[in-house]
Design a protein that fits this description.
eight-stranded mixed β-sheet; alpha+beta; about 25% strand; archaeoglobus fulgidus dsm 4304 fold
């Protein structure tokens, strides 16, 4: 899959912030996800001993959720761990992995945030814009914003408000299990983002394409550890 060269990848935090402010107005949070046939899940694992990031992509047929392709790649982390700037740390390695897939997905679910972000430009927005593919952020914890208390049953959800704007949903994917944060990345709305994640659940906390990518990235990290 071809990857657009939207900007150089900076190592400086001030440059990274400038890029987020420059491109955030290009994010589209409308559009229909009707006709989605292939969904890719993306996640990473980090080896603290070698400063190496391992990125994995697992592509699934939708809606039957049969896996049809999986790829991985790795690289040194050239950007520090800074909340809100994860795209600059993980993005280059994720894009290396995505460049290896043979089939272009109709939607990508990223383990990270979309517009539920202090500058409304999280990893799912950033990479969705670079790839020009509908994207959704499914994060394991909240980065910013406020929300009401959420009921304990599976499927319960409440709006996440960031700077007085509806920016996603706090969604309980399993009964009495900690919820995830779902938000649009690029070229989709909140309701579609929630619906597609819900349809990708198979009894676990995170959607199956992302769960597969998470397991693959961690397995490759373990296999690449030095004895």
């Amino acid at each position: 899959m071809e990857i657009a060269d939207l900007h150089p990848w900076p190592e400086d935090q001030s440059e990274a912030l400038e890029i987020q402010y420059r491109f955030r107005d290009e994010i589209i949070t409308t559009g229909s996800l009707n006709g989605v046939g292939l969904i890719a899940g993306v996640d990473t694992a980090f080896d603290h001993n070698t400063d190496t990031l391992f990125a994995s992509v697992c592509v699934f047929n939708f809606p039957d959720l049969t896996e049809c392709e999986r790829v991985s790649d790795s690289g040194k982390a050239i950007f520090p761990y800074v909340p809100g700037l994860h795209a600059f740390r993980e993005g280059p390695v994720i894009l290396k992995a995505l460049a290896r897939i043979r089939t272009r997905p109709d939607l990508i679910i990223f383990a990270g945030h979309g517009i539920a972000h202090p500058r409304r430009f999280g990893l799912a927005c950033h990479l969705g814009l670079i790839l020009d593919i509908p994207s959704v952020g499914c994060a394991r914890k909240r980065l910013t914003g406020q929300h009401d208390e959420i009921d304990p049953e599976q499927g319960a959800n409440v709006p996440l408000i960031v700077d007085n704007k509806d920016s996603g949903r706090v969604y309980r994917t399993r009964e009495k299990v900690k919820p995830v944060i779902i938000s649009p990345g690029h070229r989709c709305g909140i309701n579609d983002a929630v619906n597609v994640v819900a349809k990708c659940l198979q009894g676990y906390r995170i959607p199956e394409p992302m769960r597969a990518a998470h397991r693959l990235a961690n397995r490759i990290k373990r296999n690449n550890k030095k004895p």
